[in-house]
Please model this.
Amino acid sequence: PPPTALQLDPEAYFEREFTARVGEECVYLYPGRGDIGRLLGMNETAARTEVERCGWVFRVIHRDGVDLTITADLHDHRVNAAIVNRVVRSVSKS
Model:
């Protein structure tokens, strides 16, 4: 039998499988797959909608100069955001 796509190019095969499972529009949230910096400058509602649509948690940790009380737990699929005047000013993953 002819070689399968997996046999011909395993890296490309797994990249296609990963993208298909995660969704092309959500790949940027995963480590080594893009940059969550694209959320910078978005209004809070749009950024929250974007992140939550991908099945991740959006958490505001800083709002208009005030650090908010947050839990110390680690979460593989969470974006932390600093908001100033309803606009995302910084983001990180935890």
Observations:
- The mean pLDDT is 92.
- The CA atoms of residues 22 and 54 lie 8 Å apart.
- The first helix runs from residue 5 to 8.
